[in-house]
Predict the 3D structure of the following.
Amino acid sequence: MKPRTSLVFLFFIVSLPGICFASYKVGLGNDMWSMGISENGDDLLTWSAYYSEDITEWSVIESDYFCFTNRGTGSGDRFESSRYDVLNIRYGVHVGFDTDYFPVYFGTKIAFGVSLSGNLGGQQIQNLIHSGLGIKRAVLEYKPAEIGVCPAITADIFGGWSNGLFSINGGFGFSSETNLRISTFHAEAGLHHRGVKGEFAAGWRFVSGTGTIATLYADAIKGFYFGFSYDLGFLSFNYTANPGTWRGYGKFTVDIGNLFDPTWEESVAAMRLSKQMMHGGTSFGVCNVRHMIADKLSLGIRALYSSGFPNKGHADTETYRIMRNYGIWFAEVSYLICPDRSRWINYDVSLDVGFSHWRIEKVTNVSPENSGDSVLADEWFPAVGIDGSVLLFPDGFVVFGKTTVKIVLSVGIEWFPSRLESVLKKDMMHDNWKMTAVVPYVGMGVQFGF
């Protein structure tokens, strides 16, 4: 193995001691996990990976790995395409304060370390995944090809108020990694609900970048942003979007320490993550969250999304790509057939009412001022669905941390206006699409009860 390629495995080697500690987290990020909200023009950050491990109650080791890909900016003799990877490793110290007299808290965190950049194996990893999925390989020149080393530093100050159920928090911070070629100052405020395990946050980023890739990436993430997160204990999801550019990014994180510390007692809510295949060949990622309001009845939200560049070589030429971003959002009422959750097989049905957004774009250049990009379709439609699911395993049979896990098999139908057929043909994948008003689907996934 080439020395430059093996550097990417430093990301994993450094993290191995964390297995001994109470909190050891690993995560992956991708703009593919858009929840259907962001339009997801190319922000050049192809994928990312993260880890952190607590060393003591007040110190942490953390790292992040970024793979930047510039498929093309400019025109004529000034046309440029390149890529580079960045690996940051930092040691952080955090100090917090609270009081028994007032429901407030505040603290600070400072982290410093080293940043590596250049050819760290990101292209090999990306194309290995592309080959497995049947997607065209992305082979671009590393600029710079040599590996650079420099310091990395981040600093944050935060505080908030909590009444035990709700908490309001805020803070601001600064980060600078010379090899990342980006300096960021951010200010953020959030609202957290302990019972729902979720948080909504909004903030503002002041970002500056040096070089073509970093400048375009900075333009994609700067300014006002909003996001939400959901924490299941061993698994959490975070999503952030910028309304100014409608670019977004999702991240899944697994807490290894929590994973092997079973503390689940009963479930009052559930999150399902699944894959849904609709008639005609379009697949959707599905995330829905339900909260019980009675023994058999739950209310929830169900989001379906399909985004990215799905053509897998069909019309994926050197001159353009077809980008889709489909999103469907439902308010959901669910009924459990049998309230006995110790059954190995149970069933539920749900009624969904909501709306959908279907956007298809021809992308020719990642730099908007030089591109010939054109929106082929951008439509909103109402949507109604009926879903039936089979749940395998009783509550408490498979437990990870604070959650109990079940397998979910589902079938259902969804209704959209029939004119959706003309929209979907424009993604150049469904030449023989025969869309009807009622669309059947099948799905499979996992349910986390907590």
User: Anything to note?
Assistant: The helical segments are 3-6, 10-13, 122-133, 212-221, 256-259, 420-424. The first strand starts at residue 24 and ends at 30.
